[in-house]
Amino acid sequence: MCGRYTLRAIDRIRIKLAGPEQLELDDLDDIAPRFNIAPGQEVLAILDLEHQITVKLLLWGLIPSWSNEPKGFINARGETLQEKPSFSESFQRRRCLIPADGFYEWKRTGRARQAFFFQMKNEAPFAFAGLWDEWRKDGVSIKSCAIVTTGANELLEGVHDRMPVILPEESWKFWLDPRTPPAELLRMLVPFPADAMKSHPVSSNVNSPTIDNDDLIGRVDAEPGTMGSLF
Question: Within its chain, how far is the Cα of 147 from the centroid?
């Protein structure tokens, strides 16, 4: 799964997004660096709206448009996107990119849990494969998203059996393009190469979404007895 991530280097995200597509980046002006982005918060997302690539803030926790209540899903398993009613229509019509530059995962040993931080070896920003939807009821409209997950690569498998789908830059435009065939989209939902990534243990302070500072990504000694709620 993916339950927390970081988006620290806004300037580097700007550079990456302001590529051939020349995206509108006004929505980035008021966004501060984040070290502990949690479900239920607004997150930056890149969408294709009527063939116009744009940047929006979406609620992290996808609420299907047909749902009676605004209860969301933070992750969507890549293996079942076409079959799951909560995600199948979004997979066909409403895909997005979710910029990040790191994410957290927790290793469980019995009742103990240790947090680890994962990022690129060069610490560059990247993009998760995402889905989005819009829920409407009683005059309320909520645009929300989920991060697509896949099996863990060799770096993560000792910590968790799932990881977020990280799309290489050459796949970004195809993931967003509504004309991309489903079979080609499914081939993108694979573990990112482990040899391009690195990780280290971090403080259990990341368990609290109210703590959001650069101390969270600092290396610490393993905390085998750490417990606590993630949300």
Answer: 5
Q: What Å distances lie between residue 153 and 60, 123, 196, CA to CA?
A: 24, 18, 11
Contact 117, 199 (CB under 8 A): yes
From 21, 83, 105, 154, active-site residue: 105
User: Strands across the sheet with 112-120, in order?
Assistant: 34-37, 5-7, 102-109, 112-120, 197-202
pLDDT 10s digits, 154-175: 999 999 999 999 999 899 989 9
Alpha-carbon span 222 to 114, nearest angstrom: 7
**Domain range summary for the chain, segments of one domain joined by +:** 5-103+128-152+164-195
pLDDT of residue 230: 47
2 classed as catalytic:
yes
**Cα–Cα distance, 164 to 13 (Å, whole number):** 19
5-103+128-152+164-195: which CATH architecture?
Alpha-Beta Complex (3.90)
Asked if residues 114 and 226 have their Cβ atoms less than 8 Å apart, the reply is yes
Average pLDDT per consecutive 10 residues, the chain (231 residues; last block may be shorter)? 88 62 58 92 90 89 94 96 95 95 92 93 94 93 97 96 95 92 97 98 95 96 53 40
Structure tokens at 221: 């000694």
User: Which pLDDT score is estimated for 158?
Assistant: 93
Active site residue 223: no
**pTM exceeding 0.85:** yes
The residues near 212 (Cβ < 8 Å, ≥ 6 apart) are: 34, 35, 36
- DSSP state letters, 19-67: STT----GGGTTPPPEEEE-TTSEEEEEEEETTEEEEEEEEESB--TT-
